[in-house]
Amino acid sequence: MKDRKISSELTLLPVYNRIEIEFVRGAGCYLYDAQGRRYLDGLAGIAVNLLGYRHPRLVETARQAAGEIYHLSNLFEIAQQEQLAEQLSSLSFGTAAFFCNSGAEANEAAIKFARRYGHDRGGEKNRILSFENSFHGRTLGALTATGQPRYQRGFGPLPAGFDYLPFNDFQALEAELKDDVCALFMEVVQGEGGVVPVKPEFFRRVRELCTERDVLLVLDEVQTGIGRTGEYFAYQNYGVEPDLICLAKGLGGGFPIGCLLVRQSLRETLGFSDHASTFGGNPFACKLALTVLETLNKEKLLENVRERGEQLTRGLEELAARYEFVDRPRGIGLMQALPLASDMEAGKIMRSLIKRGLILGVAGGNCLRFVPPLIITAEEIDEMLT
Ligand code: PLP
Q: Which of 123, 201, 265, 359 is most buried (most C-beta within 10 Å)?
């Protein structure tokens, strides 16, 4: 660990509370600091590095792609973008894609899409609903969709027409999901909010009501998408299909790429010049994303997520049974949280675990958060639990 406070105080906006470790190397599920200390990474750059560090397939693709054209403007055809869109479509439910660079940007695209959808149905259909404790990003629209006032404080006036429902609450859903709503935004598993999965019967009712009242069901799968829950998309664990899906985080295996997927029948909702992103879907990012998808398939990583996820759940359940200060774990696949008693500050525990060589995150509700690379082995899960 190194004291970098002085330089970062001068050069960077103080929006992050950085831990004073500088990682200089990564391999598989491990990171190494400048002193050569090894850390098991249970956080994966906050659910981003699906294939861990220096995965040979990803390194090879990056090397090749760097020698080719890595940016082209969207004024021209980009074959890799079309290939990636086709892949994502075949893995989901027949979708059309818009590519961008981050989760917030994917949500922004979905917000505009939803507003235009409502506009085309008569003007008054413009309310957007999301859930309390949700997280959809930090740009103004995504921040407004985020149902946590602490992120919004001091940034008003926020865009109008957003309302929040308690999560997994049938009564509120029935009362609020009216014809003036154009879209309902939902995380299948609320991530930042504390790793809280949607209840299957609630998800089914959401789908029914959205269809009945002509409301777009937008799933924010920025964190849950691309294998994290043991299916390509988390909704596939429930057998309920959305209309739109927002993706980012793991899609590029560590390289920035975001995506909005929409049901084919809705494709024409946005037309020429209605939306754009300069860097969105550049050949470099798309090639890496294609390699991520190919690797998930070739290395049978969805199976690994399910097996390692069950192993992690069993281990965390044992901890919960043994220690009074931990509660039962929550989550699906390799997205789990261990809630701690209120007198145990999750942030402090996280820092002390890092000193002992284990990187975890924190999530809302005083939880330790586990989102390791999807390549994690049984031995590494055991090491994490120990
Ligand atoms: N949506 C969800 C569910 C997220 O977890 C996040 C980030 O944590 C975002 C959106 C925002 O993504 P980004 O930081 O790439 O803008």
A: 359
